[in-house]
């Protein structure tokens, strides 16, 4: 196939296998100058492998990458970077103790004389920051920046590299709405300057706002490339999952029982104050609010990860004192953290070991773990939750994000909780797995478990909650019923 | 096949080295030589088992050698003939080790200071205590029954080897089959997640440093009995051999992985190499160089294996 001169990047018949399993099978892809091209697919579709090959981190088994009319043969990240292919990572890779300028020029300091010359790089870095319109001082240490600002630093780094292709992997997953707006504006500017962008995201709104074309991968196969304005949301989802999902949120008909949990005047100085709510058995209480509104902080306090200053936690009519996660679990409270990697699981342990971790004492007699009981329980849960794996002895670090999340939920379920707090339960998870998590939430409430769901995705909050608590700057600004809540109302209370 | 071999990397290296040595030196593959190897390795083994627990939690214990000295001197002071029954010096030695381990664990969990620093401190404190207790002099003239622990035999098997087998079995079962074992891996694999899973992380850390201290106490008693003297300068540098054995055996210093069998192979490998170089009349200066190369080689091999995964 002759390469189109319009294309800065053209990928032909790219394949890659790991231990005999095809991760990528005959991938076709082309990228035009000045275009934003979405790469879509569920977790495990092969997006990461594909990006790693483009970066030069992995070598393809077969196929060609043509970059600016020449076959790209290198398999070193450094060389690809030099040629103009940069990536903004999902997990940001900046060095916290260095300044913004030092990070932007990390590894390339010698371009500005053989001795380190902070003055020159400060000036150069500031120019780039100003160019993209971010208000960051080049001499600030990275550790003092927000996640969004760190991301801007990464983008500046790519620009300073004269990047012609920038790969963005879930760049908005940790940003607030304002920051997202700012990022999207920067992307539009880059595009106008002729930079081509490969954009990976699970957030539909963004995809439709900024991308020109969409390429869909599924199970390592190339499915289709379409113009964004010719592909509607449902058709896109159908391409990604290989089937139609008409209703994103499964219907919940759980019976509501008695009040089983309440919080009275819960306060922690500087984080949240005077929080009051109650929750009945079988109910889903959604907590909405902007980033930094105190949602996760409240969850952490209830679960005993952080101390709270004052207020009461009442469980089944009794005041309980929760000083550690141990206390919380003993009292029937489970927590699925927003930060799966840091708080969710032990990567080097198996699915079984992770699932049983919080309830291991129940599977033990006098110190010794009853491994056959443990094995049985973990196998059952793994089946119920549809965890995709070769066996329950597979290490959790080798699973996809959605399956890791299911392992964490499985661990919580095995403690037989009466209240489960789900903090951003579908963050970074593809649509198919999201739907399964929603169904799971309904199964929990069917069993009479009360669920608190914290989420930044308003459709999810509206679709799943019976009642919605809105927070703004640590204060409770509204408690809405399912019927009175709308996206607009929630936003109003959230920015209050 | 090759993958299989890699999985047991250090084990294969161990067998190959044994084969080579048995070709070069006819004495190598004899019962009496192996009895010597294992008896000599037994003290390092006890320390290495203890420190394996610690390293899997992501910690380190540099005070092992000093604990050997303190506990050895403590036992020796109570082990003169016709004073106390032999159980007393043994018990006192173990207790001294346990207390020092508890002290390590207490400071580490309460102060949140890095274990490296805390145990570096107790290493120095311990050495000082051993010199204070013994007034800087070796304590000899120990009872026969005490000297049996390190020098005696049961059914022709040296007593230290029996101790080694028993302790290995207990440690191995603890790590594989008990709640504590699982929690040790969890804390080392991701401390935050372990805490959020309801594990009392501080308790787990207290446990591993206490076990490490207790086993150092046992090693101290064994050593004192074997050399029939309480030496305040004994055990210097032992912690490094123990850590090396654990690391050679596949315990990652970043925590979360490791096995007792691996550590045992690490201990035996160090023992076999020292013994082999002795048989080949290599001077001890060169032995140290070889040992260093092997430690680095083992870790390189291990990280290479992990990349292949």
TrEMBL record, chain A:
It is found in: Cell inner membrane; Cell membrane. Residues 9-244, 255-494 form the ABC transporter domain. GO terms for biological process: monosaccharide transmembrane transport. Its main location: membrane. Pfam families: ABC_tran (PF00005). Keywords: ATP-binding, Cell membrane, Membrane, Nucleotide-binding, Repeat, Sugar transport, Translocase, Transport. It is a peripheral membrane protein. Transmembrane segments: none annotated. GO terms for molecular function: ATP binding; ATP hydrolysis activity. This is Monosaccharide-transporting ATPase. It comes from Emticicia aquatilis.
Automatic annotation (TrEMBL), chain B:
InterPro entries: ABC_BtuC-like (IPR037294), ABC_transp_permease (IPR001851). Its main location: membrane. Signal peptide: none annotated. Pfam families: BPD_transp_2 (PF02653). It is found in: Cell membrane. One of its GO terms (molecular function) is transmembrane transporter activity. It comes from the Bacteria. The keyword S-adenosyl-L-methionine does not apply. Keywords: Cell membrane, Membrane, Transmembrane, Transmembrane helix. GO terms for cellular component: plasma membrane. It is a multi-pass membrane protein. The chain crosses the membrane at residues 7-28, 34-55, 62-80, 86-106, 113-134, 154-175, 206-223, 285-304. PANTHER family: ABC TRANSPORTER PERMEASE PROTEIN YPHD-RELATED-RELATED. This is Ribose ABC transporter permease. It comes from Emticicia aquatilis. The gene is rbsC.
């Amino acid at each position: 196939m002759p390469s189109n001169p319009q294309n800065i990047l053209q990928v032909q018949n790219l394949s890659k296998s790991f231990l005999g399993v095809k991760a990528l099978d005959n991938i076709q892809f082309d990228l035009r100058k000045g275009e934003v091209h979405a790469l879509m697919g569920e977790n495990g579709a092969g997006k990461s492998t594909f990006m790693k090959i483009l970066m030069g981190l992995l070598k393809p088994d077969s196929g060609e990458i043509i970059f600016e009319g020449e076959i790209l043969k290198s398999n070193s990240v450094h060389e690809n970077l030099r040629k103009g292919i940069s990536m903004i990572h999902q997990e940001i890779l900046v060095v916290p103790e260095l300044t913004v300028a030092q990070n932007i020029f990390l590894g390339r300091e010698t371009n500005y004389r053989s001795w380190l010359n902070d003055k020159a790089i400060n000036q150069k870095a500031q120019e780039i920051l100003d160019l993209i319109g971010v208000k960051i001082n080049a001499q600030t240490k990275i550790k003092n920046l927000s996640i969004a600002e760190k991301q801007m630093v990464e983008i500046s780094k790519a620009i300073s590299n004269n990047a012609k292709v920038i790969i963005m992997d879930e760049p908005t997953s940790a940003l607030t709405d304002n920051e997202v707006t700012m990022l999207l504006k920067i992307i539009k500017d880059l595009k106008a300057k002729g930079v081509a962008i490969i954009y990976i995201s699970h957030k539909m709104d963004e995809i439709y706002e900024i991308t020109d074309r969409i390429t869909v991968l599924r199970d390592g196969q190339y499915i289709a490339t379409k113009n964004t304005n010719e592909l509607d949301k449902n058709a896109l989802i159908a391409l990604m999952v290989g089937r139609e999902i008409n209703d994103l949120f499964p219907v919940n008909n759980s019976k509501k029982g008695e009040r089983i949990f309440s919080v009275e005047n819960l306060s922690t100085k500087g984080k949240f104050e005077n929080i009051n709510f109650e929750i009945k058995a079988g109910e889903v209480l959604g907590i909405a609010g902007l980033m930094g509104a105190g949602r996760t902080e409240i969850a952490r306090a209830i679960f005993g990860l952080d101390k709270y200053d004052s207020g009461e936690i009442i469980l089944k009519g009794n005041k309980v004192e929760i000083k550690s996660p141990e206390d919380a679990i003993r009292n029937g409270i489970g927590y699925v953290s927003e930060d799966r990697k840091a708080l969710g699981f032990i990567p080097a342990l198996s699915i079984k070991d992770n699932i049983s971790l919080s309830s291991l004492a129940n599977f033990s007699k006098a110190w010794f773990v009853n491994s056959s009981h443990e094995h049985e329980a973990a196998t059952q849960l793994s089946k119920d939750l549809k965890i995709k794996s070769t066996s329950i002895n597979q290490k959790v670090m080798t699973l996809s994000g959605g399956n890791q999340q299911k392992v964490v939920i499985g661990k919580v379920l095995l403690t037989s909780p009466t209240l489960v707090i789900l903090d951003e339960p579908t963050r970074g998870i593809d649509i198919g797995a999201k739907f399964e998590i929603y169904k799971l939430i309904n199964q929990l409430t069917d069993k009479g478990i009360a669920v608190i769901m914290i989420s930044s995705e308003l459709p999810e909050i509206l679709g799943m909650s019976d009642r919605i608590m809105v927070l703004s700057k640590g204060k409770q600004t509204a408690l809405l019923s399912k019927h009175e809540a709308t996206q607009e109302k929630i936003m109003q209370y959230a920015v209050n | 096949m090759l993958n299989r071999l890699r999985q047991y990397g250090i084990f294969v290296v161990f067998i190959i080295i044994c084969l080579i040595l048995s070709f070069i030196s006819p004495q190598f593959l004899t019962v009496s030589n192996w009895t010597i190897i294992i008896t000599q390795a037994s003290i390092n083994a006890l320390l290495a088992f203890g420190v394996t627990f610690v390293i899997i939690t992501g910690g380190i214990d540099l005070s092992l050698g000093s604990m050997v000295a303190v506990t050895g001197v403590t036992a020796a002071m109570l082990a003169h003939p016709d004073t106390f029954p032999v159980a007393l010096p043994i018990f006192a030695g173990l207790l001294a080790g346990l207390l020092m381990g508890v002290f390590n664990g207490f400071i580490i969990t309460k102060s949140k200071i890095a274990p490296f620093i805390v145990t570096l401190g107790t290493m120095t404190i311990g050495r000082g205590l051993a010199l204070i207790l013994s007034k800087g002099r070796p304590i000899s003239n120990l009872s026969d029954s005490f000297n049996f622990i390190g020098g005696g035999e049961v059914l022709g098997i040296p007593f230290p080897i029996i101790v080694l087998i028993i302790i290995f079995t207990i440690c191995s079962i603890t790590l594989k089959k008990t709640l504590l074992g699982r929690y040790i891996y969890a804390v080392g694999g991701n401390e935050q997640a372990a805490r959020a899973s309801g594990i009392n992380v501080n308790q787990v850390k207290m446990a591993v440093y206490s076990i490490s201290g207790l086993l150092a106490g046992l090693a101290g008693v064994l050593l004192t009995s074997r050399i029939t003297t309480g030496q305040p300068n004994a055990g210097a540098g032992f912690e490094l051999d123990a850590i090396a054995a654990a690391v050679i055996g596949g315990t990652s210093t970043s925590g979360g992985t490791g096995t007792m069998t691996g550590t045992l192979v690490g201990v035996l490998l160090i023992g076999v190499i020292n013994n082999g170089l002795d048989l080949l009349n290599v001077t001890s200066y060169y032995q140290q160089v070889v040992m260093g190369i092997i430690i680095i080689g083992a870790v390189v091999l291990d990280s290479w294996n992990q990349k292949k995964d």
